[in-house]
């Protein structure tokens, strides 16, 4: 469990435990169906979704592991939980596709710094992945600007 917690932290996910659950931590191979209740909130406490009250009925979420769920952080957290475990909202880094343009741009220096730290630790492969992600983010933003302002901006950049 401690190892899984360390991996989550390395990925920028913070998990805050309210109730530890019971039994041993299970292993969940891809294709495992996970059923759970959830409540998502903004940082100010405003409830966005609650599986117990949505639509006037209590219907738990069902997720098939390994199927590229749109919020991958849920899958990462779920596989580290025991039956009956309860968490309070923690924090996590959004996947790039889920970020606004401003959030993407703001994240590039942070990703770069993480890459530098990994490089200094001798973790070259992991550092390269961070650098690649930062560059991919910038290229994505650049393509949006080109589409917004037209090809003439692209030509000016090349000159």
Largest sheet: 2 strands, antiparallel
What is the strand tally? 6
Query: Helical stretch count?
Result: 5
The CATH architecture of the largest domain: Roll
- In spatial order, strands of the major sheet run 1-6
Low-confidence stretches: none
Helix-strand pattern, N to C? HEEEEEHEHHH
Query: What distance separates the N and C termini?
Result: 54 Å
Shape from CA axes?
globular
Q: Which CATH class of the largest domain applies here?
A: Alpha Beta
Keywords: Cytoplasm, Isomerase, Phosphoprotein, Repeat, Rotamase, TPR repeat
Subcellular location: Cytoplasm
Organism: Xenoophorus captivus
EC number: 5.2.1.8
Describe this structure in words.
There is one protein chain. About 5% of the residues are buried. This protein has 5 helices and 6 strands, in the order αβββββαβααα. A two-stranded antiparallel ribbon has the order 1-6. A two-stranded antiparallel sheet has the order 2-5. It has a two-stranded antiparallel sheet with strand order 3-4. The chain folds into 2 domains: about 1-90, Roll (Chitinase A, domain 3); about 95-159. Helix content is about 45%, strand content about 15%. α3 runs antiparallel to α4 (about 125-150) and α4 (about 125-150) packs across α5. The protein has about 160 residues and is an alpha+beta fold.
Topology at a glance:
Layout (H helix, E strand, L loop, with lengths): L1 H9 L3 E6 L13 E4 L2 E3 L5 E4 L10 E4 L7 H7 L7 E6 L9 H20 L3 H26 L1 H8 L1
Antiparallel strand pairs: 1-6, 2-5, 3-4
């Amino acid at each position: 469990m401690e190892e899984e917690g360390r991996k989550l932290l390395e990925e920028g996910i913070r998990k805050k435990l309210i109730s530890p659950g019971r039994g041993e931590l299970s292993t969940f191979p891809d294709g495992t169906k996970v059923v759970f209740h959830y409540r998502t909130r903004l940082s100010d406490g405003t409830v966005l979704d609650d599986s117990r009250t949505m639509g006037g009925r209590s219907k738990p979420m069902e997720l098939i592991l390994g199927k590229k769920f749109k919020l991958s952080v849920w899958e990462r957290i779920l596989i580290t939980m025991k039956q009956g475990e309860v968490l309070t909202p923690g924090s996590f880094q959004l996947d790039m596709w889920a970020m606004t343009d401003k959030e993407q741009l703001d994240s590039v220096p942070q990703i770069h710094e993480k890459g530098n730290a990994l490089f200094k630790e001798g973790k070259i492969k992991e550092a390269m992945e961070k650098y690649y992600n930062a560059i991919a983010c910038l290229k994505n933003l650049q393509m949006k600007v080109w589409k917004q302002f037209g090809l003439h901006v692209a030509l000016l950049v090349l000159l």
